[in-house]
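Translate structure to sequence.
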């Protein structure tokens, strides 16, 4: 891990999030002139040789990082994770059919709501009544009778909760996962999933493209005629370029895959993420001053949500953190308080600096 450059601050943004400095340096170079072509990546046609290489490597590296077999298609789509809310039922759910959803926060709730355009969203779990403080265990999931799929959100970006196991579905029911905020933060067993998706801007790159990994048999479900830009099958057949794709974000995501491989792959990334989160949670747990609303067994390694005893002190915390070179710590408007997002690219020494600040702030204001 390279030390953080002195002209950059510690960026705790929940998304778009911090990118690896090595990647940004390479991007700076390739914006000017990629592969000695005399043109930058943003100026190349999506049918040009340079982009053919960029896309082929992004897909190959995505497969290598996640150990994704040939029975899965790797797609780069647009419209963010939000577009997937309707693309998933549009592609996988018979009109009037039922799909199951675990509602564990803001995004999960949105996703279930959009299913209603196509059929019924059965809530296999609803965390609303318990203020989304935890994710369900396997035996807290109540499936309907033969749902078209089961959708869950592996990391709840706003509440700071995360599944630490992969839910099992009834026989033959595809598992669908919104992995926006923890994709490739730990090893993944893709064979357990029918479809995984993630907007790039949390753990993979800039906003503008959505990674979709889908088991190929699901491309054939087609429960209704769809416009090409809504069809997973069309994206798979047309190599993720049914129209002009977001060339630049896809290129950057490809660079991030290469960076993950250079770090030693997902096992090494996970080790580092576990260590980073432990440093922060240990500091928050060390005293009564800081309050962490997420139940301990559901705590996210990516988004650490906490607050001080009062909204006034929270404000002071944010102001003093900014003074100290730490930005984007404000919690989501629906929760208040603070949120420290420590995605893959957030440096370990940044967590140490943050913890020193936590201690000093309490000393001054506790
Ligand atoms: C950020 C986020 C989304 C929304 O992503 P967009 O790309 O803005 O549509 C959805 N789900 C989760 C878990 C997220 O963190």
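Result:
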């Amino acid at each position: 891990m390279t030390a953080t450059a002195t002209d950059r601050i510690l960026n705790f943004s929940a998304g778009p999030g911090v990118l690896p400095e090595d990647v940004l340096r390479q991007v700076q170079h390739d914006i000017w002139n990629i592969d000695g072509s005399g043109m930058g990546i943003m100026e190349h046609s999506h049918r040009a040789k340079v982009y053919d290489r960029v896309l082929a490597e992004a897909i190959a590296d995505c497969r290598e990082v996640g150990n994704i077999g040939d029975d899965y298609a790797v797609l780069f789509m647009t419209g963010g994770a939000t577009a997937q809310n309707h693309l998933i039922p549009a592609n996988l759910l018979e009109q009037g059919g039922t799909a199951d959803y675990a509602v564990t926060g803001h995004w999960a709730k949105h996703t279930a709501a959009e299913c209603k355009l196509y059929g019924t969203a059965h809530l296999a779990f609803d965390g609303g009544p318990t203020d989304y403080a935890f994710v369900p265990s396997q035996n807290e999931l109540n499936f309907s009778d033969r749902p078209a799929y089961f959708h869950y959100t592996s990391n709840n970006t706003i509440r700071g909760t995360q599944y630490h196991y992969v839910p099992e579905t009834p026989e033959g029911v595809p598992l669908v996962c919104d992995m926006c905020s923890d994709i490739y933060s730990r090893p993944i067993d893709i064979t357990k999933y029918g479809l995984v998706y993630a907007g790039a801007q949390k753990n993979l790159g800039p906003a503008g493209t959505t990674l979709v990994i889908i088991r190929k048999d699901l491309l054939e479900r087609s429960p209704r005629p769809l416009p090409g830009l809504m069809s997973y099958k069309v994206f798979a057949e047309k190599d993720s370029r049914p129209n002009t794709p977001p060339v630049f974000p896809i290129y950057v995501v490809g660079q991030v895959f290469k960076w993950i491989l250079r770090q030693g792959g997902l096992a090494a990334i996970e080790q580092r993420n576990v260590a980073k989160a432990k440093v922060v949670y240990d500091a928050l747990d060390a005293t009564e001053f800081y309050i962490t609303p997420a139940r301990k067994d559901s705590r996210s390694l990516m988004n650490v949500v906490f607050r001080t005893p009062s909204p006034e002190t929270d404000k002071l915390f944010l102001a003093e953190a900014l003074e100290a070179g730490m930005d984007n710590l404000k919690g989501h408007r629906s929760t208040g308080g603070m949120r420290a997002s420590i995605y893959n690219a957030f440096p370990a020494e940044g967590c140490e600096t943050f913890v020193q600040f936590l201690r000093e702030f309490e000393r001054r204001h506790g």
